[in-house]
Amino acid sequence: MTLIHVLQQSPMLLVAIAALLGLMVGSFLNVVIHRVPKIMERQWRAEYAEMNGQETPPTERFNLAVPRSKCPACGHSIAALENIPLVSYLMLGGKCSACKTGISPRYPIVEALTGALSGYIAWRFGLSLVTLGALLFTWSMFALAFIDLDTFYLPDDITLPLLWAGLLFNLGGVFTDLQSAVIGAIGGYLALWSVFWIFKLATGKEGMGYGDFKLLAAIGAWLGWQMLPQVILLSSLVGAVIGILLIVLARHGRNVPIPFGPYLAVAGLIALLYGEAINKHYLALF
């Protein structure tokens, strides 16, 4: 009996494997969230120096694999046993083993959320291409949301491959037909692009970044143009509620910008999991 047959006959084993894989991916996403902005900054500095005829000072090799993760407070290299998703954080009591400086709880939160949602996706969609695509989409949404929270930037290195991956999956109609995916990509970009320019012409200010256009285009490429109104509405509602709460409870200044990418990511995940049911319920009202 092959592994595929075993997983088809044991749904809970599939869920457990997906959740465990999600935990490991969540640990890797923490590295992506932390390092991708730094890698991009180094590239920008190198390009700026080259454009101005300056020599780029030599720096140590820095990518997603090198150097090893270290404690930002004391420089202690994180050993393999200290890097087990969730388990290591609990065993260390949330502190560095060397200097006892507190470790940000966001690391285990990202791991736990990624693991839990990965398991849920496997339970919901079973052993299928839909599950594989949904996992890739979900992991990308997590990375983009947290990078945007930290830097107010949605890197092209993630949004553009995500867009092409959505079109590739939908060549076979995994989530929607190819025509809907292409229209979704175009419509997603143009929808926020139009809002951007209307707002800029009316106020003289930029209300969002170009990365938001690309993220919505990627969501459209995965889920089709039919989901775009729902994603835009949900992201706007979530953003409005959280924005009001930040102003009221956290005394967040009204002029302080709030990244829109996380709200698009949350709305995209809701549409992925429940979009068809929401659309059917909405259309039934009419």
Plain-language structure description:
By secondary structure, this protein is mostly helical. It is built from ten helices and no strands.
Name the features.
globular, 10 helices, 286 residues, single chain, 69% helix
Our estimate of the beta-strand percent is under 5%
What structural category arises from helix and sheet content? Answer: mainly alpha
Average pLDDT, rounded to a whole number, is 88
Q: Alpha-carbon distance between the termini?
A: 50 Å
| Poorly predicted tracts of residues | none
Helix content: 55-70%
By DSSP, the count of extended strands is 0
Please summarize the sheet with the most strands: none
**CA gyration radius, whole angstroms:** 21 Å
Return the string of H and E elements. HHHHHHHHHH
DSSP summary: helix tally: 10
Outline:
globular
Question: Summarize this, please?
Answer:
With 286 residues, this protein is mainly α. It has ten helices and no strands.
